[in-house]
Design a protein that fits this description.
12 strands, alpha/beta, four-stranded antiparallel sheet, 13 helices, Alpha-Beta Plaits, 2 domains, Aminopeptidase, eight-stranded mixed sheet, single chain
Length: 407
């Protein structure tokens, strides 16, 4: 009873207020300390927004700050406060976003409705190369769309490079990067037409539309991660724990107030069901599945459910390394590349494992985009452009490596 009551109170406080919340950066120095932080991440008092074997960040309330500070001191884990007022920074970001409203540029974070309208405009402007399809609805009945981008040669049944974004609500840079991918392939076609010679690109720029709009509705909701379907004590499911491949294994929670709540059953969420149906409709055609997340600067691949290497692990590593090399040459940023469960921690029910295992994607990679803002995820609107440009460099390099392998 106490656990359920605490979870309910925690869920409500997390959803309704970020007042006096902070973000701590943690510095584990050995495996024992890393494992301890992983254990703490399973406690609903702490919202770990970044967690690998070597680094971590955690969002804390005033009460949980006291608790975790004591534990960190006890076990000798170093830390520092990297954001002393999460709500103030969320308010500042919201104000800056509202003041930057050019036509579908890289100057601000767009609403779900704006993104959908823009997709329709592209189809109307480039009817020979662009095909927009409404593939379903979110729980709150927001239309979910894909855009298929071709070179206009009329060939059907080509292999596919599939990109999705907006899985986790608070990761705003993810759909912004998806938008930039679309812009480069459609509006900058001449420069990028080689990418479309033997592959169609299908992009789903917004999966978790309800959660995304909830984070935009008020700065106090900025750190929401999950979907918005109500459950017994708290709303929402982690959509990236809700896919039916090794569902319910490591790295998931049965508690609905946890950010890693996997849901009552696989595909309990309309959003994940929609993505499943799209992927299965392309089974056998997907050369490259790429899902965009933040934050961290990682290129990770199956398996994520356990520390097991995929049958074509060397190919997965090679494609990820191509992305690393291109980004490093462009900006000097160093991504980490490797097996998801080994590089980070096991997390079952993710879309990259599902696309690889069930939709037969030859290469399946999660691109964790680098952090930029003090909130822990996104650059301020004024800095979106260099982030998405850098990410595009890596995406092109990985796509070219895949095309060379599987043409």
């Amino acid at each position: 009873m106490w656990t359920k009551t605490f979870c309910l109170l925690f869920c409500l406080s997390s959803a309704l207020a970020l007042k006096d919340y902070k973000i701590l950066e943690l510095f584990p120095s050995n495996d024992h300390q890393s494992d301890l932080l992983h254990k703490l991440s399973e406690d609903s008092k702490f919202d770990f927004i970044k967690l690998t074997k070597s680094e971590a960040q955690v969002l804390v309330s005033p009460e949980s700050h006291k608790v975790i500070s004591s534990l960190l001191s006890k076990y000798g884990i170093g830390y520092k406060v990297v954001n002393n007022d999460v709500l103030a920074d969320a308010i500042k970001e919201s104000e800056e976003n509202e003041s930057s409203q050019e036509r579908m540029g890289t100057d601000c974070y767009r609403s779900h409705g704006e993104i959908n309208n823009w997709l329709d405009e592209l189809q109307a402007k480039y009817p020979q190369r662009v095909f927009v399809k409404q593939v379903g609805f979110s729980y709150e009945r927001r239309p979910l769309k894909t855009i298929t981008i071709t070179n206009g040669d009329g060939r059907s049944g080509k292999k596919v490079i599939f990109v999705d974004a907006g899985m986790h609500a608070r990761e705003w840079i993810s759909p912004s990067t998806g938008i930039y991918v679309i812009q480069q392939l459609v509006e900058n076609f001449e420069e990028n037409k080689a990418l479309l010679k033997d592959h169609d690109w299908i992009v789903m720029p917004m999966i978790n539309a309800d959660g995304y709009e909830y984070t935009r509705s008020d700065p106090k909701n900025r750190m929401w991660r999950k979907t918005r379907q109500p459950y017994k004590t708290c709303a929402g499911v982690d959509p990236n724990r809700n896919f039916d491949y090794m569902f319910g294994h490591a790295g998931t929670s049965t508690l609905s107030c946890m950010d890693t709540y996997r849901g009552p059953q696989p595909f309990s969420e309309p959003e994940t069901s929609v993505l499943r149906d799209v992927l299965l409709s392309l089974k056998g055609r997907i050369s490259f599945y790429l899902t965009l997340h933040s934050h961290g600067a990682y290129l990770i691949y199956p398996w994520g459910y356990d520390k097991v290497l995929a049958p074509n692990n060397d190919e997965l590593q090679d494609v990820g390394q191509a992305g690393y090399d291109a980004i490093y040459a462009y900006s000097g940023r160093k991504y980490l590349v490797g097996n998801a469960a080994i590089l980070m921690y096991p997390a079952a029910g993710a879309s990259d494992d599902y696309a690889y295992a069930r939709a037969d994607a030859r290469i399946s990679i999660t691109m964790e985009l680098p952090s930029g803002g003090k909130q822990g995820f996104d650059p301020p609107p004024s800095d979106i452009k260099p982030y998405v440009e850098e990410s595009w460099i890596g995406i092109v390099a990985m796509a070219n490596r895949v095309i060379a392998k599987y043409n």
